[in-house]
Amino acid sequence: MLAPLRESEGFDPARDLLVLVDDVALDVGRFRLRGAGSAGGHNGLKSIEGALRRQDYARLRIGVGPRPMDYDDLADFVLDGFTKEERRVLDALLDPMAEAVECWLDEGIERAMNRFNR
């Protein structure tokens, strides 16, 4: 899926790619922008890094964690549905996250991180 982009003339993941990703290290209701970094054990990011053969692309990390004790497998937790309260909290994030994406598009990752990361 990303391999054709990688081969596209002028495509620069550091400038042109923003990946939205779940993050158990952030509480539900929080999000953070990041300009680059490792996959940190996240299978989706590992797949992207494998296709791109690099780690310098922006991410919008959306909090879904931490994993409750009644889940043995992290994958089961992140693939499970949200509670009504979690859904309400996440729905409230849609507008601020959309603003963060627009800021990234218009002004770049550094400006977006400075404005939206708390």
List strands and helices in order, with pairings.
Blueprint: H1 3-7, H2 13-16, E1 18-27, E2 31-34, H3 43-52, E3 58-65, H4 74-79, H5 84-107, H6 109-116
Parallel strand pairs: 1-3
Antiparallel strand pairs: 2-3
Helix pairs in contact: 5-6
What attributes does this structure have?
single chain, alpha+beta, 6 helices, three-stranded mixed β-sheet, globular, 118 residues
Question: Could you characterize the architecture of this molecule?
Answer:
With 118 residues, the chain is of the alpha+beta class. The chain has helices spanning 3-7, 13-16, 43-52, 74-79, 84-107, 109-116, and strands at 18-27, 31-34, 58-65. It has a three-stranded mixed β-sheet with strand order 1-3-2. 14% of the residues are buried.
Specify the biggest β-sheet: 3 strands, mixed
Gyration radius from CA atoms, angstroms:
15 Å
The beta-strand count equals 3
Regions with little confidence, pLDDT below 50 for 5+ residues: none
| Proportion of beta-strand residues | 15-25%
Summarize model confidence as the mean pLDDT: 91
Strand arrangement across the biggest beta sheet: 1-3-2
Number of helices: 6
Protein structure class: alpha+beta
- Helix content class: 40-55%
Distance between the termini: 33 Å
Order of helices and strands: HHEEHEHHH
Mass-distribution shape = globular
